Amino acid sequence: MKIASFNVNSIRARLPNITDWLAAFSPDVVCLQEIKAQDEQFPITEIEAAGYHAAVVGQKSYNGVAILSRTPITTRLRALPGDTEDEQARYVEVETEAGFIVGGLYLPNGNPVPGPKFDYKLAWMDRLIDHAQALLRTEQPFVLCGDYNVIPTDADVYDPRAMAGDALGRPESKDRFYRLLNLGLTDSFRVFDPRPGQFSYWDYQRGAYDKDHGWRIDFILASPQAADRLTGAGIDRSPRAQEKASDHTPVWAEFA
DNA sequence: ATGGTAGTAAAACTA
Questions:
Q1: Residue A112, preceding peptide bond in cis (omega within 30° of 0)
Q2: How does pLDDT run across A136-166, given as a tens digit for each residue?
Q3: Any bridge partners for residue A77, and if so which?
């Protein structure tokens, strides 16, 4: 089972790129972030024509997440538990017919630091840690996939010093990411690839992609029961080189 | 220190 995560930066502006990639890569499950569409604006006809079921949590203009699956899925959650006041569309969770739980997340960016957006990011990460603990107690295999908006280590960014004060590189953000891993979750990519400088995001500005000035901020974190079945993981750079590309490229992991 | 790009949606906000 191939599971992928792709921050598409608008599903409507990116639809040909996305359907081309679905046909070429053929993931079984894909978590999408920043679809930037309300539920009724989601191109469900085209996605179904591509062979996928969809669970969509949309929002006007910003954010928005979805999970696509080749086989039917049951929606478990349409928001991250822990704050009923939180209206931002950043979390969706489904279960496959095989009993595999997939959480798709778009973690808040958090800039500028300090400020209410950074506070929201840290509170959101605390909620994610709590929810991961709840999922671990189910003892079902699960993955938490998405755009984490955190640069975990200096190996995951072209210029660590430039990002040290940014919300993505701040110690408060990293600490919470490590706490998540230390619950027993596995960064799928790092099981197979120890090389520094492997990125999943390149800014649109300053020719960042051509200069390979990127960050690795998209992750597929696997629970112990899921990690036992890991057979591969990687970053598919090809969509980022296309015309009208997203600023992110898909990451993937394969489970037996 | 500034501004460089992209998307949404209609001027400013988010990233």
A1: yes
A2: 999 999 999 999 999 999 999 999 999 999 9
A3: A93
Say which CATH number the domain at A248 has.
Answer: 3.60.10.10
Strand spans (E) along A8-127: 29-33, 53-57, 65-69, 73-77, 91-96, 101-106
User: A115 is written with which tokens?
Assistant: 């400020």
Q: Is the CB of A62 under 7 A from strand B?
A: yes
Distance (Å, rounded) from C-alpha A45 to C-alpha A249? 24
For A27, the token pair is: 């993931």
Half-sphere exposure of A227 (CA within 13 A, CB side): 18
Q: Which two tokens stand for residue A62?
A: 């910003």
Number of domains in chain A: 1
Spanning CA of A167 to C1' of B1, the rounded length in angstroms is 20
How many CB atoms sit inside 10 A of residue A29's CB?
Answer: 26
Burial of A103 per CB tally in 10 Å (0-12, 13-18, 19+): buried
Instruction: Round to a whole number and report the distance in Å from the CA of A94 to the C1' of B2.
Output: 45
**In this predicted structure, what is the pLDDT of residue A121?**
98
Tell me the pLDDT tens digit for each residue of A216-230.
999 999 999 999 999
Among candidate residues A132, A57, A147, A59, the one with its CA nearest the CA of residue A101: A132
A61 CA – B10 C1', rounded, Å:
12
Strand B at less than 7 A from CB of A14: yes
Name the pTM for this structure.
Answer: 0.98
List the domain range (segments joined by +) for residue A246: 2-255
Indicate the pairing of strand A73-77 with strand A91-96.
Answer: antiparallel
Comparing every residue's Cα with the C1' atom of nucleotide B14, the nearest one is: A62
